[in-house]
Amino acid sequence: MAVLQLGINLFNENGGLIAVLKFSLACGLLGLVGWTIVSPLLGAWVRAKQMYKIPCTNCRFFTNDYRLKCTMNPYAANTEAAIDCSDYMSD
Ligand code: SF4
Fold first, then answer.
1. Is the CB of 73 under 6 A from ligand 1?
2. Which ligand 1 atom lies nearest to the CA of residue 60?
């Protein structure tokens, strides 16, 4: 109780401290809202850059058939495992 009373007295006696705390809280909330908006966009950007590194659609062995996507590496075709595929051969 003494600590609570001390905190209440500090808040009541010092209006500047309250203003600083309000400003900090507002900045923190704005930062959280900004990060909530920016974070998924950054994640999507990084993911899209990674996906564009997959070379299969320009590869000679890519069949564009869902039953057998690639005649050389069917399990790796159109996945991140195909990014540095040693069997890649351009059309
Ligand atoms: S050979 Fe490699 S790069 Fe070509 S389609 Fe198959 S997995 Fe993709």
1. yes
2. 4
CA distance 28 to 54: 39
Q: How far is the CA of 79 from the centre of ligand 1 (A)?
A: 9
Q: Which residue has the tokens 């890519």?
A: 62
Q: What is the pLDDT of residue 48?
A: 96
Q: Which of 68, 73, 84 to mutate to test the pocket of ligand 1 (most atoms within 8 A of CB)?
A: 73
Tokens of 20: 């600083």
Instruction: Give 16-59 pLDDT, tens digit per residue.
Output: 788 888 899 999 999 999 999 999 999 999 999 999 999 999 99
**Whole-number Å distance between alpha carbons of 79 and 49:** 13
